[in-house]
TrEMBL record:
<keyword id="KW-0328">Glycosyltransferase</keyword>
<dbReference type="InterPro" id="IPR035994">
    <property type="entry name" value="Nucleoside_phosphorylase_sf"/>
</dbReference>
<comment type="pathway">
    <text>Purine metabolism; purine nucleoside salvage.</text>
</comment>
<dbReference type="Pfam" id="PF01048">
    <property type="entry name" value="PNP_UDP_1"/>
</dbReference>
<keyword id="KW-0808">Transferase</keyword>
<dbReference type="InterPro" id="IPR011268">
    <property type="entry name" value="Purine_phosphorylase"/>
</dbReference>
<comment type="function">
    <text>The purine nucleoside phosphorylases catalyze the phosphorolytic breakdown of the N-glycosidic bond in the beta-(deoxy)ribonucleoside molecules, with the formation of the corresponding free purine bases and pentose-1-phosphate.</text>
</comment>
<dbReference type="InterPro" id="IPR000845">
    <property type="entry name" value="Nucleoside_phosphorylase_d"/>
</dbReference>
<comment type="similarity">
    <text>Belongs to the PNP/MTAP phosphorylase family.</text>
</comment>
<feature type="domain" description="Nucleoside phosphorylase">
    <location>
        <begin position="22"/>
        <end position="267"/>
    </location>
</feature>
<protein>
    <recommendedName>
        <fullName>Purine nucleoside phosphorylase</fullName>
        <ecNumber>2.4.2.1</ecNumber>
    </recommendedName>
</protein>
Amino acid sequence: MINYINETVDYLKDKGFINPEIGIILGTGLGMLLDEITILKEVSYNHIPNFPTATVEFHKGKLIFGELEGKKVIVMQGRFHLYEGYTLQDVTYPVRVMEKLGITTLLVSNASGAINLNFKKGELMLIDDHINLQGSSPLAFKGVSLLGERFADMSAPYDATINNTFKSIAKTNNITLHEGVYASVVGPQLETRAEYRMLKIIGADAVGMSTVPEVIVANHLNLKVAAISVLTDECDPDNLEAVAIDDIIATAAIAEPNMITLFKGLIQSL
């Protein structure tokens, strides 16, 4: 994997991806942040050596380098998921590449369902902790110790200083920002009523199909990491309604301006 990473990094450096400070992963329906970025370079995933290719139609599949609030950022417009048939090493490969390019902070967004019924769709949740229900680990492969500590500590996977800054920005801007535990499942099917009940029992406040693998690898690489969920549906097992992906994307778009405010304010403070 080290040789693959180096080949990818050399290609991107030749394309002008030089000295990014912050990496950003944009989740489902969350692309408007790009309108705030001065784009310097961009390249499609399918042109990048050793990179996976996004197969989900609403994930665009571009790596973007630019400036936001005076900082150099590298943005994944579209991420990878286990449910697309990739391995956890594929899903997290871009995080390893961004770290090798120079980022020290990783910001992640996602769309998720609200398990905590005090949370409403269209609101945001700052992830304080997570539960990995994807069945494996992105660190479970031969040679992982060559890239970092095999037994990565996960006692505090989300940076407390960044999270406190997010909460301060939310308060200043009158943005509802819940804080809670995110459970990551494989998908792509949504959960049954019984599964939502289980998730609530084990302590989840929201559920989605991403983020945790990237956060594990970010911690493996000693990056500062924070993540925000846009709550796109309410998962009440006693009053469960069918949810279409178009509805999820539409709700994400409505909530996205608040997320952008938080991301811009945070990056300005770094």
